[in-house]
Structures are given as C-alpha cells and as structure tokens.
C-alpha cells in the first residue's frame, strides 16, 4: 500500500504504474546501465514507488544495502541521475507524461527494528504475559 495517497487509498492504476516503475528502476540499477561510478558503486534496494493520483510524480523509497553508503548518499546519487533515470523509465512506459522521480529514504526497516526492540523490553513482555493470564488465576 502506498505511504502517501488519497483518503480512499491508491487506485489500481497508481499501484500498477508504481510497480512497473519499481521494476524498471531495479533492473537499471542492477545492470549498472547508468554511467555514474558513484551510483554504480552503491547497491540500492527500491522498496516502493508511490504514484501521485495524476501519475505525474513518482516518490521512490530507497535503502542502500550492505552498509556501503548512507541513505543520503544513495538519494544524492539517484537525484543527480534523475533525468537519465526518468528518460529510461519513460521509454519503457506508455504514459502521457513522464513522471517526475523523487527519491526518499525507506524507513520501513527502521520502524520494524524499533517495534522489535519495544516488544523485547522486559517490562512490555511482563505486561503482555499478564494480559494473557486468565483472571482469578
């Protein structure tokens, strides 16, 4: 599900186009087709592509892999090559407009780690165990 969408949620077309852009960008980055040594030296995972309702803006959530670079390094390298990436994505899609590509850090894993740490807290574990016990036992 898209992180930034209308109150009813993203429409089917937004999801479909976002997934197509995600696959195209992943393929481009994996094959190293963009001629930028900085970008090609960073292994980047694309977690999600959220499309605006008019399909003119694609917000791409990225995470650098294997600790080689920070999220900001990856976003800077992608933003520097956004025009070339946009051109390549546009050539693969049949849309009226070529969507503007905006890159953001994917914080999903950070939030999962925070939730995991919270549930591992002994006080939280005690509260969960107390709630599971039947009353009067």
Task: Describe the SSE topology.
Blueprint: H1 12-31, H2 37-41, E1 44-51, E2 57-64, H3 71-80, H4 82-92, E3 100-105, H5 108-120, H6 122-132
Parallel strand pairs: 2-3
Antiparallel strand pairs: 1-2
Task: Summarize it.
With about 140 residues, the protein is of the alpha+beta class.
Question: Your description of this structure?
Answer:
The chain has 137 residues and is of the alpha+beta class. The chain has two domains: 12-106, K homology (KH) domain (GMP Synthetase, Chain A, domain 3, 2-Layer Sandwich), CATH 3.30.300; 107-137, no CATH class. It contains six helices and three strands. It has a three-stranded mixed β-sheet with strand order 1-2-3, covered by helices on one side. A hairpin with a 5-residue loop joins strand 1 (44-51) and strand 2. Helix 1 (12-31) packs across helix 4. The longest helix is centred in the N-terminal third of the chain and has 20 residues, at 12-31. The model has no long low-confidence stretch (mean pLDDT 83).
């Amino acid at each position: 599900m898209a992180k930034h969408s209308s109150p009813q949620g993203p429409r089917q077309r937004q999801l479909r186009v976002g997934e197509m852009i995600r696959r195209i960008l992943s393929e481009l980055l994996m094959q190293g087709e963009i001629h930028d040594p900085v970008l090609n030296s960073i292994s980047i995972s694309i977690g999600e592509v959220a499309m605006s309702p008019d399909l003119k803006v694609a917000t791409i959530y990225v995470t650098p892999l294997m600790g080689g670079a920070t999220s900001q390094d990856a976003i800077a390298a992608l933003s520097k090559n956004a025009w070339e990436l946009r051109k390549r994505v546009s050539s693969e899609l049949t849309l009226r407009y070529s969507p503007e590509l905006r890159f953001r850090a994917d914080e999903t894993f950070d939030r999962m780690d925070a939730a995991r740490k919270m549930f591992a807290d002994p006080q939280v574990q005690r509260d969960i165990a107390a709630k599971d016990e039947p009353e009067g036992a």
